[in-house]
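Researcher: Go.
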Amino acid sequence: MAIEIDKLKYSPTLRLRALEMRAVEQLFDLEKSQFLPTFLLRPWTTATTIEKALDRIDLAMANGPYCLNFDPLYFGETGHADAVAQYENLKNHAAAWYDFVERRENCIPYLRSEGGFPNLNAPNMRWLQERGFGISLMYPFHELSSVAAFISQREDSNFFVNVDAGWDLEVLNKQLAVNGVVRALIQANENVNIVVTSSTFPNSFDGVGLDYRHSLAERTLFENAQLEARSISNRANIFYGDWATTRPPSNTPMPNFWPRIDVPLTSEIRMFREKGNDVRATYEELAEEIVQGPYWDQIPDCWGKYLIDITSSGGTGGIFLPTQNVPPRINMHLHTQISAAHGGPQDSGVEEYED
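Model: Structure:
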């Protein structure tokens, strides 16, 4: 399944969890062909084989293309013992990893960098050159020199480097570091494809009232890095990435959880958590406030918007629990960012959702 990596515009990173998969599954089929998500592999719930995790991705993506990397925050704490053992084998043996992903023609793997990058000229690695691959560079970017040396030898552009600044509420403090990475990569290979990724989704909502505005500094980080890239060369393709309004998982329960509904827009998230003056609101009251807002009609139609709409009328299948806020938020965010990347609202081809 050929992917034109040099034409990519949006590549979010998503953990392989039920809430994220539900959000992706509810995207329009057209949208699933217009972005290239990276899924972070871990065993799927109670499945006995690691293959089932990829089956779940295929279901969510309608068998469309996606990228696959290991979840750096998964340490075998959940999952069936057999699937966990298979996962550990893939993580600890590069040859097993490449054999595993080669069998899935719609899967674009990230390269394993432990012990150096593979010899892509070897016969058993030719499929990687044809299919394409990703390279992960996580903050604080310790592997920059080895990645730059590797891509400097590449004559093709069928790969990308994911420059991930991580989760950080003050991510713009890393702007100089990210710009330096972008500059070094372009100097190593002017044809490089770079995705600039980060997350600023809050871990506390104290003080979030009625229509609180959380700015997506992820986009500012990317836009500044893009300007840096353009000052060096117009040949490199630098595109936007994020964590799709998620943050690293926490085992600490949030006390006194108040109902909250989030509305992602292109460069901010509008958060609704109270009526005003520190008065708790119901999910239905929050949804009513949202759908009566001045920007509601400007939000492209999508599954997440539909759920907020039916919540406002107390309809079945709406948002009435904290976890029920997550899939529609992620879905709306993905829909909005895909739409922005492609110049406007997407034609869904459908008139109405059936829940």
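Model: The chain has one domain: 5-341.
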